[in-house]
Amino acid sequence: MARLLQAPPKFHPTEWDVANKMQCASTESQKSRSERTITDSRRLLDEIEKTTQKTRSDVNKKIEQRQEEIKFWKQELDNKLEQIVHETEVLLTFKTRLEKSLESCKEPLVIVQKCLLNRQRRAGIDLVHDEVEHELVKEAEVLQGVIALLGRTLEQTNEQIRLNRSAKYSLEADLKDKFTALMIDDYCASLTNNTPDTRYADNAVKIEGNFVSPEDWIDFSNINVEKADKQRNNSLALRALIDGILSQTANDRLKQCEMVNVAFRNRVTEVKDAKHKLEMLLAMVMDETASQEKNIAALKKAIADKEGPVKVAQTRLEARNHRPNVELCYDTVQYRLISEVQEIRKNTQRQVEDTLAQAETELKGLRRRQLSLEEEIQIKANTLYIDEVLCMQMRESVYINNF
């Protein structure tokens, strides 16, 4: 118990003095280290602040440069988009021209085919492979060739429109991405330390696998621009081709149509001339027929007129044959009466009757010729009706326009 109440040991004054000096030295040393740390910290903070400000300034400058770069390419893409949209609209009008031109060929082709079919109804010798038919066949071939050419050109135009729209779609998609990227960079450029919606993003510095290099980024837009330029140039060339085709096909159709019309007019004139000549021949034959009929009537009358003298002469001979005995003499009277009967018979039977038979044969020939001429005139009239009324009037509705 006495030990427990024993007083603590006492230090020597020298020890106390040393201890105080050590405390002072330790404190001074700690203070010096702290001051160096504070100085180093301030210097470090100042350096970090300067580095941060410099980096921020550099980043802001890079963002600004990037914004300008995006704006440049966005403007390029906008220009190309405007050009390709305008070119597509113009090409659509050319497509309409092609469609109208193609449609305008259908009715003339039907008319040509109807003309050829109608002309098969010509009869007799008029069913001839004449210049009109030759030109009609040629016109049908021209129209069929034009329809085939316009059809192929229309297909080519539809394909070019599709390619133009594909280039337009690529430009629009690129522009949409550029617009989004510009909006994001504008937002990034507006951020400051005091912006309220700034936050930590742990994975922000991680570079994903779908990042592209700046070169690839430029190449992508450049490819879209070049694609648009290529399709626009192709479209311009196609429009020039369409212009030439429409002009040439219209000229070919117009030229061949006129060739057919000229052939029709010439043929109608030829047929009318032939018909007129046949009608003149028919009139001549009918006049000759009337003359022959009068001649036959006169011959028959002449034969009839000779019956009286024959009867008188034969009656006289019959009466003189009853003379009695020696009076039945072959005198000059008897001789002359017999001669008269023979003479009348000879003149009537051998000459007049033969002439009558010949005249009747000629009359039959004239009537056959009349029927033949009337039939031929009817054939010519039928040909004129087909060519002048059916075909030429039908062709008046053909109008060739250079669309």
Automatic annotation (TrEMBL):
A Gene Ontology cellular-component term: axoneme
Coiled coil stretches, renumbered: 56-83, 338-376
UniProt GO BP: cilium assembly; cilium movement involved in cell motility
Main subcellular location: cytoplasm
Keyword annotations: Cell projection, Cilium, Coiled coil, Cytoplasm, Cytoskeleton, Flagellum
Cellular compartment(s): Cytoplasm, Cytoskeleton, Cilium axoneme; Cytoplasm, Cytoskeleton, Flagellum axoneme
InterPro entries, sorted: Tektin-like, Tektins
Family: Belongs to the tektin family.
Xref: PANTHER family: TEKTIN, TEKTIN-1
Assembly description: Microtubule inner protein component of sperm flagellar doublet microtubules.
Function field: Microtubule inner protein (MIP) part of the dynein-decorated doublet microtubules (DMTs) in cilia and flagellar axoneme. Forms filamentous polymers in the walls of ciliary and flagellar microtubules.
Protein name, as recorded: Tektin
